[in-house]
Description:
The protein has helices spanning 3-28, 38-63, 68-91, 100-128. 21% of the residues are buried. The chain is mostly helical.
Amino acid sequence: MNWSSIIKFSAFHFVVLTLLSTLTTLLIGADNLDKQAGSDLLLYFKLPSFIVGSIILSLFAKKQESKVLLHLLITVAISSVVSTAIVSVLMQTVFISQTWFIDLPISAISILLAIFIGIRLRGITSNAT
Length: 129
């Protein structure tokens, strides 16, 4: 297990997705969130997070040569636990997002896509050298 890379990419994954979510909330406005249709929330929040998260995980998958799935699962799990813990501390209660049933499959698809892209990128890089 490459724990230093797992911790590094987990922190990077968490920080970038937090910044993206914050920026999206600032652009849309926090007051408008409850007035948005479900499809708009998917488009404005979930899709950008999916794309950016997949790119970050693809970079890790490209770098990691063995047990890629396990490394990416641990990376996403650490990032998710840290974000849940921070939100829970800020809200002073244990907080599990009401959209967890949407977030979980999106994370799984992101991991699988990242594995595919990372392996393809690794192949392109090794063929070029």
